[in-house]
Amino acid sequence: MAAAADPRPLTGEPVALDLLNTRWVADGQLLDLFAGAAGLTRIEGVAVWLESVGLSDRFRADAPTLIHLLTAREALARAVADPAGASGRALVDGVLEHGRIRATLTEHGPGERAEFDDPAWGPAWLAARDYLGLLGSAPDRIRACASGSCVLHFFDTSRNGTRRWCSMAACGNRAKASRHYARTRER
Questions:
Q1: pLDDT top residue among 11 and 186
Q2: What burial letters (b/e) apply to 76-91, b meaning 16+ CB within 10 Å?
Q3: Rounded Cα gap, residues 17 and 11, in angstroms
Q4: Are 163 and 154 a contacting pair, CB within 8 Å?
Q5: CA dist., res. 187 & res. 152, Å (int)
Q6: Which of 37, 89, 124, 145 could form a disulfide with 166 if both were Cys (CB 3.0 to 4.6 A apart)?
C-alpha cells in the first residue's frame, strides 16, 4: 500500500516521540493520524506513519498493527507525562514484553536483531525500545512543546539544550507574536 502524504506538522523526531506526535492540534481541534485525520482511513494513517519513520518495508499497515501502535502510544504518553509514574512504566514494559533483542554475528562483527512474538507488535515495540534509548542518552531532552495549545513532543538536539517549541515557525512564532501584541497594547 502506497502511503499518502503525511499531514502532521512535526515529523522526523525519534520513533517514540514521532508515535506520540500522531496526535496534534490544528485550528483548536485535536487530530489523530490513526483516527481519520486528513481524510485518511485508520489503516492509511498507519501506512503514513510507517513510511514516515522508515518502517514501511518491514511491517504491514493492518488492524493488528494499529491496535498495538495505539497501545504503545498510550504507554509512551503516560511515561513521558510522568516519568516517575509506575503506570507508565508498567505500560511500556507491557509493550516491551512482545519483543527482544537477539545478539548476532554479522560480516561486520557483532550485531543485534529485534525479534517479536508477532510481527504486528514490531513497530510498537521499536517505538517503546526507542524511548528506552532516549532515556538512556538524555532524558532531560525529551520535551513537550511549551505552547499551552500544542500537544507535540520533541527531542531537543540544540547545542545548549534550550529548545522550547515544537517548531519556531509555528508555536514559537505565535508566542513571539503574542508577546509583541501584548507589549504594543500596553503602550
A1: 11
A2: bbbbbeeeeeeebeeb
A3: 9
A4: yes
A5: 34
A6: 145
**pTM of full prediction above 0.70:** yes
pLDDT digits (tens, 9 = 90+) for 127-139: 999 999 999 999 9
Query: Is residue 4 within 8 Å of 48, Cβ to Cβ?
Result: yes
In total, the chain counts a number of residues equal to 187
Q: At 37, give phi and psi (nearest 5°).
A: -65, 145
Digit-coded pLDDT (tens) for 42-64 = 999 999 999 999 999 999 999 99
Taking 90 as the threshold, does the pLDDT of residue 102 lie above it? yes
* Helix ranges restricted to H, the chain: 15-20, 42-52, 63-81, 86-96, 122-137, 173-186
